[in-house]
Amino acid sequence: MERLILAASFFLGCFAILAQTILFREQLAILEGNELTLGLLLAGWLIGVAVGALTPRKLDVERSLSRWFAAILLSPPLMLAVCVILIRLLPAILDVPVGEIPSPIQTLLFALMAALPLGFLFGFSFPVFSAALNQCQPAESGEAPIAKTASIGSIFLIESLGGAMAGFLMAIGRSQLINPFLHSVIALGVFGLILILSDDRLRRKSILLSAIIAIPLLLYLSQILNDWSASRRWENHHPGYELYRCLETPYQRLEIGGREGQYTLFGNGAELFSFPNEYEAPQWAYMALSQNPQAKSILLASGDSGLLAPLAEHRPDKIAVAYLDSGIGDIFYDGLGQNIKRTVVKNFPLDFNRSAGPLPGVALSIDQTDIRRLLSSIPQQTKFDCIIIIQPGPSNGLLNRLYTREFFRHSRDFLSSDGVFVITAAGPPAYDYGDAGANCGAIYWTLREVFPNVLAVPGVTWWFFASPSRQFLIDADAIAQRHRELNLDSAYFAPEFFSLFYEAERIRQAEKSLQTYAAMPRNTDDRPLCYLYHLLIWSKQYNYLKWLPVEALAKSGASLLGIGLAAALLFYGVCYGASRMILGRKRNPAPLVTLAATGLASMGAEISILLFFQSKVGCLYERVGVFFAIFMLGLALGAVFAKRRGMASKPASIALLGLDRGLFLILLITPIMLMRVESLNRYSIFEFAIQPPEMALWLWNGIIAFAAGMIFTITAQAMPKSESVSSSAGWVDAADNLGGALGALVTGVLLVPILGIMNTFYLFAGVKAMNLIGLYLWTRKIKLTV
């Protein structure tokens, strides 16, 4: 029986990581790739875990463990299917207008509602499994019961190892080949088998025969539910479009929809580009080369192949094409990699690969990778006369990777001495102040920090031109005359069209207005301003925070850090006082408060590392489950180390003080480690493109979890011996997860958007410093008592 309990814990831990990853991907598809949903999802999950961990205390589950054991195994797979359907039907349930996403309040409530039930079930399982493991040994061998802390630690360890196994499956790319409902069916089968083996009454031929018959029916039902719910999601979000193809890539979910001969590619529900676009594409191509029409080598980062023919009309020697997402090229091909899941809904009527036609005299190379990874792999001596970035704009972390100071610097290294870097973004057509203006101002000044010469051309789409030495023209007639002299021939563009983009007076006014944003922080990998702009503009769209200008928050990171530390001190005092009231004066709340602070800091640190990874590498959509699993593995190894190396034999106060000091130092030096990650980005290893920066972030994520796992184990040891196993397990699990829920919520919604990633780590280090003071006073009190 003991082995079956441990097996159940292992597979439940594995299923928990898979469920978190599935819910995250499903929410991204509804909220157009906004990674801030990660904090909301984990907050709802951890609140559910905390409440679930405390519930068995009230139900006295130890009197009927077998019944609760069966219920807790069969419920999570069924609940995951319900949550996935709920997320996919969100736009219809909330009656969200087409082209918009739910309001911030709706998103918060829905994220909590979608993740909390599953979190509750997993939290409920922890004390139940701990109590079952504590009781099973006397029942089988007559020996003394397993020590309370040993049973709690064993379940914690095995669940964490199960989560690590899920991460391994995701690392090799196998889990994304399975639809979410099939995950539920597989888990239901595994847990059902464990139940049959654990109960002699279920080992009858009739039960086994029924299970065998049910398997194909459940598999068939899983496909029906997946197709139906995915179809409803598509119809609610993109009415009028026919769905042609879907592709799960490491970066996002890509979908091609068509309407009246026009086709649109969507990434996580957001429009990326439309094609064919015979009128607008030539205008964009000629505008991109307006400052350097004689460019001989061009690097284009755009998925729209309609730009290639008009670019080739400028007679370059070479055009290299890269993508924001390597899957943008794959979705149009018939031959795809084995680890890529594509759904062909109906035959695609357009041969996208040849839609641009032949490009005579031009060497065309299309690289099936994203542009940041491409620039990290090509020889340093490679130079381009023009690098063109045409993307929707920095509305989320995936797109923001192409608008940061680090990417601009990297691109500058591959420009010729008078080359031109071109990038587009959405902004106010007639330049004015406000949040959209501040966004353009941040892009402009980030470019100015890298390039000596920068020109901003305002419009419905803003064009930014930057160069190490080239002087830019703003007169439309002069630009048009230069193109006439080149005798360029285009059926869709005339030089007179440049007057639609270049209005000298408007450009001068934009330049004057942009000077007012010189003090704005620069958009960097460690401070992605897209999250702040998106959060405020999204809120103001629904009449929240309309009085708050975005630059007021963007400029005040240092002062807000001080306010944040003061708020953390107040919160810590409130938590300490509340714990004292709940636990009574005879019990010191320091261990549980320490565990809550550890959960807050470690979970906040994990989310910060995930968002930093998204800025550097970009494939968070695929790798998020791996990070979850490595965090769980770190927790498991920390628990093992604390037990095996004698940490649990020391007085709990002394052990916690030393471990908390170690976690404080880790958090304090994390920003230094993150700043060194970029130096590793020139190398790429392994066939499935795991890079050294990714492995470095994996390792550091595991180190933080390792420290948290040791603190969890020692806190369990510090619980009063008079309490039952389920009660002790419930208290420590609840403290850990409530702290983690708060850390996830404030990190994703407030800290990273306002303070940036680096300052967020300093804030968490401050929280641990305050906790160290409380631990020191507790330790000293114990010494004086002795």
Tell me what the structure shows:
The protein is of the alpha/beta class and 786 residues long. It is 60% helix and 10% strand. Strands 8-6-5-9-10-12-11 form a seven-stranded mixed sheet. Strands 4-3-2-1-7 form a five-stranded antiparallel sheet. A hairpin with a 3-residue loop joins β11 (453-457) and β12 (461-467). α1 (2-30) packs across α6, α20 packs antiparallel against α21 (590-616) and α23 packs antiparallel against α24. The longest helix has 38 residues, at 104-141. It is globular, with a radius of gyration of 28 Å.
Mean pLDDT level: 80
Specify the number of helices: 26
Task: Give me the count of strands.
Answer: 12
Oligomer: single chain
**Roughly what percent helix?**
55-70%
Our Rg estimate from Cα atoms comes to: 28 Å
Distance between the termini: 43 Å
Which percent band covers the strand fraction?
5-15%
Q: How are the strands ordered across the major sheet? A: 8-6-5-9-10-12-11
Q: Helix/strand/pairing class, anyone?
A: alpha/beta
Identify the overall geometry: globular
Largest sheet: 7 strands, mixed
Weakly predicted, low-confidence segments: 139-147, 335-340, 682-690
Can you lay out the helices and strands and say which pair or pack?
Elements lengths: L1 H29 L6 H23 L5 H24 L1 H5 L9 H38 L6 H24 L8 H19 L6 H33 L4 E7 L4 E7 L2 E6 L2 E6 L4 H9 L8 E5 L6 H5 L5 E6 L3 H4 L10 E4 L18 E8 H5 L8 E6 L7 H4 L4 H8 L2 E12 L8 H14 L4 E5 L3 E7 L8 H10 L18 H11 L15 H12 L8 H5 L2 H27 L6 H27 L3 H25 L7 H26 L14 H27 L6 H31 L1 H29 L1
Helix pairs in contact: 1-2, 1-3, 1-5, 1-6, 1-7, 1-22, 2-5, 2-25, 3-5, 3-7, 5-6, 5-25, 6-22, 7-8, 18-25, 20-21, 20-26, 21-22, 21-23, 21-24, 21-25, 21-26, 22-24, 23-24, 23-26, 25-26
